[in-house]
Each structure stands twice: as structure tokens, then as C-alpha cells.
Amino acid sequence: MSISIIIASIYQGLLWSLMAIGVYLTFRILDIADMTAEGSFPLGGAICASCIVNGWSPIIATLFGFLGGMAAGFISGIMHTKLEIPALLTGILTMTGLYSINLFVMGKANISLLGGEKTIFTMTPVANENTAIFIVGGIVVAAVILLLVIFFNTEMGLAARAVGNNQNMAAANGVSVDNMKMIVYMISNGLIALCGALMVQMNGFADISMGIGTLVIALAAIIIAEILLKNITFGQRLLTIILGSIIYRLIIAFVLDRGVDPNALRLFYSLLLTIFLSFPFISKKIKQRQLRQKNRQEMEGK
After folding, report:
1. Residue 6 Cα distances to 101, 108, 166, 194, 248, angstroms
2. Model confidence at 131: pLDDT above 70
3. What pTM value is reported for the model?
4. Helix 214-228 vs helix 265-301: angle between axes, to the nearest 10 degrees?
5. Nearest Cα residue to 195 out of 221, 169, 162
6. Does 280 score more than 60 pLDDT?
7. Start-to-end C-alpha separation, the chain
8. DSSP reduced 3-state for 57
9. Rounded distance, CA 84 to CA 287, Å?
10. Around Cβ 179, how many Cβ atoms within 10 Å?
11. I want to staple 242 with a disulfide (CB 3.0 to 4.6 A). Which of 1, 17, 48, 185 is the partner?
12. pLDDT tens, residue by residue, 184-202
């Protein structure tokens, strides 16, 4: 695998980590696998691309993409908390509805940004595009992590984390469970849409189907991060998610470099995530087997 592919995988993983961090907030803090992600990701990209081709500043377009994702999270939060629709079904309903909304926003199935439009990356004074992506992506990710760490250590943020740990206990202590869930939904989907907005500007196009399979990618990055290091602080976990996302992109790049059919890539995504999710179970079984063997040897020695 060439150096250029490795570098490309690193900066792609850096941008994808925003998606993984957004998914982490609902997946681990609220213990919800929010399917809204596969709708809010292309929503952020659709809003951003539409704004850019209509002459808006890339920075404003990116911000609008983020706000669009927050709006999608708000809708999912309302459906789940106020209408008491199960979380999984809520995500599916919102994701399905966002497909049509994304088409309305773009006006067609895809939008190209290769006609000389400025992006948040080409606005930088750095001549090399890959370097610009790495710098801008690094600044955005660092700012997001810093703000999340600050927020989730405030009274409101700690209340949101308490809801994820034990809803009944949080409610007994006067925490508004519904409001906290909605806040996390909004932050999560806002970050996912922000990732979509940045990915559109990096790739040079927005497509209606760009959200398919993104949840699997994000979950894989999270699981890799949790395998690497356990029992660490919230801020440290967010940092390991960046590393997990980069490792995942390197794995995908390695597989493609070995000539795997790109049509089988999504199947590989699923198999890889299955392996990562089953890793703790397999590790536990191996340790149990080793312990039984050790006990048997000790008994035979006596």
C-alpha cells in the first residue's frame, strides 16, 4: 500500500471521526442505535452543496448543514420522547422521510462541486488540497471534542449522561429525561450532518445515496476505539474514536489495495463490524478456556 493511500486514509478517517463521535453520543450515552444518522449525514451534505452552488460562503453552507442535522435530531427526539415511538423505529421513520427532504433540498439526485466552486478547504492559503483537508479537519475535530468535553462536564451535560446510565434514577433526582434525550439527539445528528457537509466538499459532490452504510462505518470506528483502550475518560474516548476511525479507513484501503471487488465493500463492512462486535465475547471465551486449562494443570500437579 502506497504512502499516498495511507495519507488519504488518515485525513478521510479524521473527517469520518465526526460521524463516529456523533453516533457515539446516542449509541453509548443514550444506549440507542439511532438510524437517523443515515438520513442526517446526506442532509448535511445536501444543504451544504446546495448553498455553495447558489453562491453562499462555504463556511455558512457548512454551518447550515450542521443546523439541518440538529433539526433532524430534534424531530427524532420529539418522536421518541413525546410520541413514545421506539428509538429504532423513530430513526427508521426519520431516515425515510429525510430521503425525500434531501431530494427537495438538492432538486435532483446529485450535485457536483467540481465546477470551480469554493469549498471550506480551497479557502485556506495552503496550496496542497490534502494538507488543507488535514488542517481544516483537524481544527474542526479538535474544536468539536473540546466543546463536547466542556458541555458534558457542565450540570446539563452530566444530567444527560445520567439519563443514559439510569433513566429512573435521573428522573428521581429531578432531571428532565425527555429534554436531555432531545439535546443529545440534536447534538449527535448535528455532528453527523457536519461530517456530511465536510465530506461533500472533500469529494466534490453530494449524492442522495451517500448516507447508506454510514452507520456501520461509525459503529466500526467506535468498537475499534473501545477495543484499543478501556475504562478511560469521556474526553479520552473521543480521542480514541478518531484513532479508531483512521484505523478503519486504513483497513478498507488495505482491502481495496489487495484487489477486492468494490461491489463487495458493504458486505465487508458488515462482516468487519460483526467481528469487532463479537471480539469481547471471543476474548472472554479464550480467557475462560485458558483459566480452565490452568486449573486442570494445577489439579494434575497436585
Report:
1. 36, 34, 42, 24, 12
2. yes
3. 0.90
4. 30
5. 221
6. yes
7. 54
8. coil
9. 42
10. 15
11. 17
12. 999 999 999 999 999 999 9
